[in-house]
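Lecture notes, unit on protein representations.

Consider one protein chain, 122 amino acids long.
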Amino acid sequence: MLLALLVLFSTVSFTIEKHFCGDVLVDISVFSEAQKCATETMEILMKKTCCKDEIEVVLGQDELKFSSFEDLHFEQQQFVTGLAYSYINLFVGLEQLFIPHEDYSPPNLVTDIQVLDQVFII
């Protein structure tokens, strides 16, 4: 399961967008567009800009190597087959043990013999 998650996260691509007003970081966004500052609309009208956007693209792995069981050498196929067989048979349950006195019920005690004979363990 861990290897499947590793393959999944290594193939995911995403972008990180940062918006700066001057030297101050205003917003960081991972999957959507970063929020702009309020002064940017006035700067567009005045034709000078102090705001800037930085976009970092993190590319995931594009090419994955797929191999099948037939691509392995004969010795490797034997090893994998033996490993799988021994792992599956590792969890086979044991046979039920025969217990001859399973249905035996002890006799009812009429009196306590130790109290009757006045014998106590000290």
